[in-house]
Request: fold
Amino acid sequence: MGGQYLSPMTSNIDISAPQTRRMRLDSPSETADLAQQLGAILLPGDVLLLSGGIGAGKTHFARSLIQSLLLTPEDVPSPTFTLVQTYDTAVGELWHSDLYRLTGPDEAIELGLTDAFETAICLIEWPDRLQDVTPASALNLEFATTDSEDQRELTLTWQTARWDMLQTVLP
Ligand SMILES: Nc1ncnc2c1ncn2[C@@H]1O[C@H](COP(=O)(O)OP(=O)(O)OP(=O)(O)O)[C@@H](O)[C@H]1O
Ligand SMILES: [Mg+2]
Reply:
């Protein structure tokens, strides 16, 4: 196992000052469009941590992203019960995980998640369960509901140069 998921203190990647980008997503289809745009730039080793409460839109975002990358169309069920679903894309394997039921980071390691962080594209719901195996190089997406039923506020944060291009690529 490499050290990419270790804390910034011990990691072998360059951790820079946190960068933030906020946006409003006015409908499920706006969220799907953003997911497709982000999906198009992903490579193996990229980890997206999807946070926010129940019904915030994490699975909707992940499903839209995965469907835009699938080589052959297939259903994208929520991994609530299976914990992990894997998919083949043109750029390699993609892991979609929902860690809500995870008991702790040891189980994440047993599932092979920490290895997948280095070899696959990973979309992780309820990433707070990862605790000290949270990859410092990840892109964090925090979804929040608003007073309007179909609207979400999304906050993107990151600490590695890998994601700096989002400041120009995103709408
Ligand atoms: N702008 C929006 N973006 C994303 N989803 C939206 C938006 N507006 C409404 N929704 C709806 O909110 C719901 C989000 O459900 P979803 O399963 O994605 O939540 P979740 O964050 O994965 O919750 P859980 O923690 O239970 O897994 C969907 O029914 C979706 O259609
Ligand atoms: Mg979900």
Observations:
- The pocket of magnesium ion (ligand 2) is lined by residues 58-59, 78, 98, 125 (CB under 6 Å).
